Amino acid sequence: MRVAIACDHGGFPLKQVVIERTVQLGHEVIDFGTDTDAISVDFPDYVYKVGDALQRGVVERGIIICGSGIGASIAANKMKGILAGVCHDHYSAHQGVEHDHMNVLCIGARIIGSAVADEITASFLSAQKDMDERFVRRMGKVYKLEEFGHL
């Protein structure tokens, strides 16, 4: 699977851990930066790069790391077709894909350490969408909200 990974300066300390785990699992990484934590950058710029790659079909999933994960999640969910969730535990990381068809994992580098980031990355990337009728029905409603703003 091709995976887009990006971070802002707050997420930079965990980016290499996430990249290394993704590669260990046999996936191809497209690294959209940032490449340092010495300069403050705006997380929406990096969120856009990951979301755009997903929308264009260049990658199948994305991982965005910022200080809390929340800003990245908010910004990513503004993009059509992006289903982003903040996950700081392995259950949420795989359940978000399975039941909610999440395609972007958001992590807070100021919230979790490298061992948990490693576990979460593995859980997210190994999970598959559950196409049970109830999950498909629910996601259809989510897409209707995205398209029309109401059910």
CATH architecture classification: 3-Layer(aba) Sandwich
CATH superfamily: Sugar-phosphate isomerase, RpiB/LacA/LacB
The DSSP helix count reads: 6
Helix content: 40-55%
Lateral strand order in the biggest sheet: 2-1-3-5-4
Largest sheet: 5 strands, parallel
Which range does the strand content fall in? 15-25%
Distance between the termini: 33 Å
Question: Could you please describe the fold and organization of this structure?
Answer:
β4 (84-86), α4 and β5 (104-108) form a beta-alpha-beta unit. α1 packs across α5 and α4 (90-98) runs parallel beside α5 (114-126). The protein is of the alpha/beta class. It is globular and about 45 Å long. Helices cover 47% and strands 16% of the residues. It has helices spanning 12-24, 43-55, 70-76, 90-98, 114-126, 133-148, and strands at 2-7, 28-31, 61-66, 84-86, 104-108. A five-stranded parallel β-sheet has the order 2-1-3-5-4, sandwiched between helices.
Can you lay out the helices and strands and say which pair or pack?
Blueprint: E1 2-7, H1 12-24, E2 28-31, H2 43-55, E3 61-66, H3 70-76, E4 84-86, H4 90-98, E5 104-108, H5 114-126, H6 133-148
Parallel strand pairs: 1-2, 1-3, 3-5, 4-5
Briefly characterize the structure.
With 151 residues, the protein is an alpha/beta fold. The chain contains 6 helices and 5 strands; from the N terminus they run E-H-E-H-E-H-E-H-E-H-H. 47% of the residues lie in helices and 16% in strands.
